[in-house]
């Protein structure tokens, strides 16, 4: 059975920290589905189409990475993708507490799905999509927080 992981998130936008997690997880899985979860209560800076486009461009040369979007429960989405693993990143103890709750809930919802955590690389542990959005909205520079391909797509 192949090892398929779903990496769920908002990716609004995808940052160099997210990208690093995917790169480091690649040797562990046969396929990683980077999946944009759509929450109707959340306001996004980038449209779903734009965020999917970012993912297409970023992983265009990586055959083991697919991208998708979903509504509803992440565990239900995992079923549709035949995924037995959820991939998440942890930057801090605050992330840990939050991620622990979500992982335990997901385990209750579907015991067949194992959540795998990768610790953020120290140089990226302060980077979040929300910080990038805040800087963008205030016309600051964000190149050091984004993969080069994503930054290029923002400036053109
Ligand atoms: P969500 O809205 O589900 O938190 P995000 O797009 O903000 O979605 O994050 C998706 C996942 O990536 C989460 O597990 C988050 O902890 C992780 N993550 C976000 N930024 C980083 C980073 N700089 N380094 C490592 N992991 C990160």
For the structure shown, list the relevant keywords.
156 residues, alpha/beta, five-stranded parallel β-sheet, 6 helices, 5 strands, 40% helix, 21% strand, binds adenosine-5'-diphosphate
Describe the fold and architecture.
The protein is α/β, with parallel strands linked by helices. It is 40% helix and 21% strand. The protein contains six helices and five strands. It has helices spanning 16-25, 48-58, 74-80, 93-109, 129-137, 148-155, and strands spanning 4-9, 31-38, 65-71, 85-90, 114-119. The chain has a five-stranded parallel beta sheet with strand order 3-2-1-4-5, with helices on both faces. Strand 1, helix 1 (16-25) and strand 2 (31-38) form a beta-alpha-beta unit. The longest helix is centred in the middle third of the chain and has 17 residues, at 93-109. It is globular, with a radius of gyration of 15 Å. The N and C termini lie far apart (42 Å). The site of adenosine-5'-diphosphate has 16 residues, from helix 1 and strand 4.
Query: Approximately how much helix is present in the residues?
Result: 25-40%
Shape: globular
Could you list the spans in which at least 5 consecutive residues all have pLDDT below 50? none
Beta-strand share of residues: 15-25%
**So how many helices?**
6
Secondary-structure element series:
EHEHEHEHEHH
Bound molecules: adenosine-5'-diphosphate
Strand line-up of the largest beta sheet: 3-2-1-4-5
Question: How many individual β-strands?
Answer: 5
Radius of gyration, whole Å: 15 Å
Based on secondary structure, the structural category is alpha/beta
Main beta sheet: strand number and arrangement? 5 strands, parallel
Distance between the termini: 42 Å
Mean of all residue-level pLDDT scores = 97
């Amino acid at each position: 059975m192949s090892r398929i992981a779903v990496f769920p998130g908002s990716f609004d936008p995808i940052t160099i920290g997210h990208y690093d997690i995917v790169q480091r997880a690649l040797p562990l899985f046969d396929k990683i589905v980077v999946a944009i979860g759509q929450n109707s209560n959340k306001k996004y800076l980038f449209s779903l189409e734009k965020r999917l486009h970012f993912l297409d461009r970023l992983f265009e040369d990586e055959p083991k990475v697919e991208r998708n979007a979903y509504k509803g429960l992440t565990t239900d989405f995992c079923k549709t993708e035949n995924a037995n693993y959820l991939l998440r990143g942890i930057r801090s103890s605050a992330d840990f507490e939050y991620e622990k709750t979500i992982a335990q809930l997901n385990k209750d919802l579907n015991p067949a799905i194992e959540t795998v955590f990768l610790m953020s690389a120290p140089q990226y542990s302060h980077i979040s999509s929300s910080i990038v959005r805040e800087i963008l909205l205030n016309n600051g520079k964000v190149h050091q927080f984004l993969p080069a391909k994503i930054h290029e797509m923002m400036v053109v």
